[in-house]
Design goal:
Elements (H helix, E strand, L loop, with lengths): L11 E7 L5 H15 L6 E7 L11 H9 L16 H4 L2 E4 L2 H15 L8 E3 L25 H27 L3
Parallel strand pairs: 1-2, 1-3, 3-4
Helix pairs in contact: 1-5
The structure holds 4-nitrophenyl phosphate (4NP).
Length: about 180
């Protein structure tokens, strides 16, 4: 799958967005960052995460999300919640939504912000890059674990780990192809 090119050659700016920015997008941020470090791309790909809602701005990650990441060897400690704003579309090369509801909210923001001629190619679902996707459209969602059982966080971790690995490969290819 091809990505939109970086606005600045050699540097890719990526935003990961869920609802609260304390569970899914911070977990995806941690696993993606680790894969980027492993591929030597961490200085070429800048990642931020945000929520469409502002309830948890400035807060650390959800305790269960942080524990799941820690048990798998990732560092959750630096995260602080941020809220997505329409201006991020001018800053980021690609905005990835964690589920379909997030995608709809982000699409509304994009349309409200820029009127006609919106560049929707820069807005996709994170799991569009998941190599393990089933038949239904729902399979493109990272399910919200916030109100569910602890096991939901393990399931999110498995999804974001394998998707981060695949996304890192696509980012590496995109940066090579668009080298200045
Ligand atoms: P997230 O999970 O979108 O994966 O961070 C949620 C966190 C908080 C809330 C909803 C979802 N909330 O309603 O506060």
């Amino acid at each position: 799958m091809n990505l939109p090119g970086p606005r600045e050659p050699g540097l890719y700016r990526l935003a990961l967005v869920c609802l609260g920015n304390i569970c899914r997008s911070p977990m995806a941020h941690a696993t993606l960052e680790a894969h980027l470090v492993g591929a030597g791309l961490d200085d070429r790909v800048h990642v931020r995460s945000a929520g469409t809602g502002g309830w948890h701005v400035g807060e650390p990650m959800d305790r269960r999300a942080a524990a799941t990441l820690t048990a798998a060897g990732y560092d959750p400690s630096r995260h602080r919640g941020q809220q997505f704003a329409a201006s991020w579309y001018d800053e980021f090369d690609l905005v990835l939504a964690m589920d379909t509801s997030n995608l709809e909210d982000l699409t509304d923001l994009l349309r409200a912000g820029s009127g006609a001629g919106t560049d929707t190619g820069r807005l996709r679902r994170f799991r569009d890059f998941d190599p393990v996707v089933g038949a239904g459209d729902d399979d493109r969602d990272v399910p919200d674990p916030y109100y569910g059982a602890e096991s939901g966080f393990d399931s999110v971790l498995a999804m974001v780990e394998r998707t981060s690995e695949a996304l890192t490969a696509v980012l590496g290819r995109t940066l090579r192809e668009t080298r200045a």
